[in-house]
Amino acid sequence: GIREPGTVFTRPYESPLSVVDLRTHLRTSWIEVVSSDGIPYKALLFTSFAVDKTPWDRNLYHNLYQKNHLLKDGKEPDYRKGSYHFSRARVRALLSTTGVSSPLDDSTKTKTAHWDERVLYEIEKTAREVLSQRRIDELWQPKDDYEGANAIDDIANSIKEMCTFQLKQRGVHLYVCRVINLEFSKETQAQN
User: What is the model's pLDDT at position 112?
Assistant: First the structure.
């Protein structure tokens, strides 16, 4: 079963399936992208996520439960002691994302892909999709040009909008996801 935070002693011959860190996870990763006009580049992605501890309204819970039945009884956190509240149902949904191998690994290795690696992979995949829909010049120019418009904020909002519901189905709350740096090859820089 799912135990509360802190030191938990196991019984003889019992071993934990996984340890879930309830703190907020901060990750950075470089992703390779090809723009819509065919120019390859790398983007540094910053993301912050955690096990979802926010109460869900009835409609959101109903929509999430239809997509993932492991979220039964996961409408709100059922463990409320201490600093780290959590829902056992959401942790179960989260652990269902643990797999035998990670999509980031090459096929010759076999290792366990933990839930946080799976979350990061989904965010990277979505970020790559959002970025690949833009031309290079659109990385600095917002699609809707109005006073105070910012292309980086526009990209971040698109990534977050596409990821939020998908990650909530797994019991994860996405706080932020944004591109914080771009890197172009010397050839690309010389052409422009």
Answer: 64
Give the DSSP H/E element, type plus range, for residue 30. Answer: strand 25-34
Length of the chain: 192
What is the rounded distance in angstroms from the CA atom of residue 183 to the CA atom of residue 192? 13
- The 3-state DSSP class for residue 31 equals strand
- Residues forming beta bridges with residue 51, ordered by sequence position: 172
Q: Assign residue 171 a region: left if phi > 0, alpha if psi is -120 to 50, beta otherwise?
A: left
In angstroms, rounded to a whole number, what is the distance separating the alpha carbons of residues 34 and 32? 7
Pair of tokens at residue 14: 């019992």
Please tell me what DSSP assigns to residue 46.
Answer: E
> ∠ at Cα 161 (157, 165), nearest 5°?
155
Radius of gyration of the chain measured on its C-alpha atoms = 19
Cβ 160 vs Cβ 177: under 8 Å: yes
- In this prediction, residue 149 carries a pLDDT of 79
Q: Which residue ranges of the chain lie beneath pLDDT 50?
A: 100, 102, 108
The span from the CA of 7 to the CA of 9, in Å, is 7
Q: What is the pLDDT of residue 21?
A: 87
- Residue spans of beta strands (DSSP E) within 107-185: 172-183
Which of 79, 113, 108, 80 is CA-nearest to residue 94? Answer: 113
Q: Which two tokens stand for residue 6?
A: 């802190």
Beta-strand pair 172-183/40-51: antiparallel
Rounded to two decimals, the pTM is 0.84
